[in-house]
Amino acid sequence: MKIAIYGRPVNMNQLPLAENVIQLLKKKNCQIQVHAPYLEFLNLKKDSSISSFSSHEDLKSGVDFLISIGGDGTFLDTVFLVKDSNIPVVGINAGRLGFLSSISRENLEEAIDSLSLGHYSLDSRSLLRLESNYPIFEGQNIALNEFTLHKKETSSMITIHTYLNGEYLNSYWADGIMISTPTGSTGYSLSCGGPIIIPQTETFVITPIAPHNLNVRPIVVADNNVISLEVEGRSQAFMATLDSRSVTINSGFQLAIKKENYSVNLVRLANENFLNTLRKKLNWGLDTRN
């Protein structure tokens, strides 16, 4: 197997876990590539058995899996590395919740064995694409979880005029608005009162953030819709985010969110599925009575 590894070079506590992953892969005689900044962070540049990669272009030559070591934020970074290559992503959790990075330290050896034996399934997850009348996010305008438009330099609410395929939906008077994929429905959207969406439902969730009118609730729409947004407020600066990345925009920006024409494959081991993860990670339906 040819395995690529990605991690954020920030947390020294990850070093033993990353070293363990690499040793287990070497025992399976895997070819190993490590993202260049992470390779330097791990102090493995002198290991001639490990090569490095820097971008999506470097991963096109027969990589079987991309392993993400970290939390869900680290996992989200891998979207720009795999892009439309169909390389499956394996999430090893070195963080806290680990909804996407679902493989724990304790199950690491079992997980590597399962990959080598082919005992896994692929979970296809849709992406959203942001388009704008001005350049934004340096062309890295896709997200696995959500797009958010939020007030920035004032405590006053903002108004977001929202359209579906050019047809007027609503003007949200709120702190902001969020458009999430089914994958993102268990993240920020959930904390703002949005519903949990099964990954294969081909939908977007439009969730207002702290709306002024309490009867304005989240709405689920088919992801073949183009959702257009125009924003205004007392301030001329607003914050736009794609997953964990953010930029400042003004009211001159016209934004449109649509479904990306390719998806990302998540690796699920034989004993894992979305519903099990839902119950385990979110304590969904847990009866806490003694």
Your description of this structure?
The chain has about 290 residues and is an alpha+beta fold. It folds into 2 domains: about 1-120, Rossmann fold (3-Layer(aba) Sandwich), CATH 3.40.50; about 125-260, Probable inorganic polyphosphate/atp-NAD kinase, domain 2 (Tumour Suppressor Smad4, Sandwich), CATH 2.60.200.30. The protein is built from 7 helices and 17 strands. A 6-stranded antiparallel β-sheet has the order 7-6-17-14-9-10. The protein has a 6-stranded antiparallel β-sheet with strand order 13-12-11-8-15-16, with no helix packed on it. Strands 3-2-1-4-5 form a 5-stranded parallel β-sheet. Strand 9 (about 160-165) and strand 10 form a beta hairpin. The longest helix is centred in the N-terminal third of the chain and has 13 residues, at about 15-25. It starts with a strand and ends in an 8-residue tail after the last helix. The model has no long low-confidence stretch (mean pLDDT about 90).
Summarize this structure briefly:
Helix content is 18%, strand content 38%. With 290 residues, it is of the alpha+beta class.
Question: Could you list some keywords that capture this structure?
Answer:
6-stranded antiparallel β-sheet; 17 strands; alpha+beta; Rossmann fold; Tumour Suppressor Smad4; 290 residues; 2 domains
The whole-number mean of residue pLDDT values reads 90
The poorly predicted ranges are none
Radius of gyration: 20 Å
| Arrangement of strands in the largest sheet | 7-6-17-14-9-10
* Tally of alpha and pi helices: 7
Distance between the termini: 48 Å
- Helical content stands at 10-25%
Structural class determined from secondary elements: alpha+beta
Beta-strand percentage range: 35-45%
Assigned CATH architecture of the largest domain: Sandwich
Q: Give the beta-strand count.
A: 17
Q: Tell me the overall shape.
A: globular
Top-tier CATH class of the largest domain:
Mainly Beta
